[in-house]
């Protein structure tokens, strides 16, 4: 069994909790390192095993990620899988000096967004994927490399995105050696049929690559889109605790799809998550006390899981 | 073309706005008749054509529905389809004295809930369906009759619900002459695969009966369940403006699936709704000013529809 299939077993659903990365991207006040440690400990106690925890950036660029190395060490001590962003060569070089389990890099689906957001072409971004893969595979810890394709379902600058372009970019990233390809609905434009269509197209082209999906709930479609992605065969889904993570392109919008609600979705669809919803609630307390200005979303935390029915998946794989 | 296929054309999606009925079920303070009229006028201007507007009950039982006759008259003047609950013989007799377009009656999926909620057996409730159909078809205005099967996806008292029982009840209601069978996730337990399964079972048994679905967003699955229902062939979906309508069985829970978000879902799935989201927003202002204590839900009202893409369905039928 490769490291890849240990981290992302093909017969199981994996929920990645990205609150400590994408959830903190826009916040004014961010949790202390100790609070992040407690957040991770409580989620890990609840059964969460996959986290995206920060970004390798100069500390003055985004102070909320200045402690990324410590957080990765904490993940290692908790024996959970850690992932972190590295958006340039320097970041990737820094990442491989740590025990991070997965390096996440980003390629925009559109040239317009690539230039505006990262000041480079998509071609340059894909070349960086290749260099990151080389660095990672040549390093002592051999972290996985995921490429998130941002704006894959519509772009805040270019508008409609041709799914064939996304398939082409995904194929080039896979050729460059990416272990995981992530399809990101960065600004929450997608509908479920579009999700199903794109996932199927990418799977048809790429075969057995590990595909993940990253959804924002900006227009309330997050859970529906996750359901469609599961129907199409996706087994790796990002979410953030309490739906943290506003979007700079959509003021007032919610952030990522709510992690807690994804658990209910998966279990009701027959995919065991291994996560205890009740225990997970205690992690929200950390977010609430550390970031009192952030709205915490989520239907399950509000209503609770039904006690009258057995809503858990009946098998452990699906 | 029958009245039924004029009201619910089989090749179109119909969204029923039930805010003035289910949305007011639990509120402390309710809109004045004039405000309800304005609510209907604004929604009608936005293209909404189907409303559930109250219940035929003694005025002292639920004062928020005391003006149901006036509201039905207003619907008639606006040339929109009105529906109202009638939960006993007296209510049905009252209903057929008005120009209401559709009488909605309810049968519980479980004997336990039927006894606890309506103090009658399911058999008695189905007998009432038959009498209501007789009254309706013998009346001057011949309103349609819909039977909502409450707790169809799980019961707050009995727990799990056998889908075969729901199919059996649906068949008996159709035999009793119901024009529309509604499947209601009254307490928000359902997941999308369960919705798809039950809709397909009922369709297989009942053939060409008009099926509708009534979803509560208590556990965040509302839009995902609506998407699954559409995939399974449902073309009539209930929602309430701003997701109004708390559930007595789930304190703190949200109410019905958000009407505004359903519009985005349908359009993104290729089903034209004929509803202008921007104009619909002005109806929320009525709800906000008349019921200042109610939380108004909805992602589309918060984030707005995307301006960068054409998110409308490309055809007018689907």
TrEMBL record, chains A, B:
GO terms for molecular function: acyltransferase activity, acyl groups converted into alkyl on transfer; hydroxymethylglutaryl-CoA lyase activity; metal ion binding. Residues 13-281 form the Pyruvate carboxyltransferase domain. It holds the Pfam family HMGL-like. InterPro entries: AIPM/Hcit_synth_CS, Aldolase_TIM, HMGL, PYR_CT. The keyword NADP does not apply. PROSITE patterns: AIPM_HOMOCIT_SYNTH_1, PYR_CT. Keywords: Lyase, Metal-binding, Transferase. GO terms for biological process: ketone body biosynthetic process; L-leucine catabolic process. It comes from the Bacteria. Belongs to the HMG-CoA lyase family. Belongs to the alpha-IPM synthase/homocitrate synthase family. PANTHER family: HYDROXYMETHYLGLUTARYL-COA LYASE. This is Hydroxymethylglutaryl-CoA lyase. It comes from Hoeflea prorocentri.
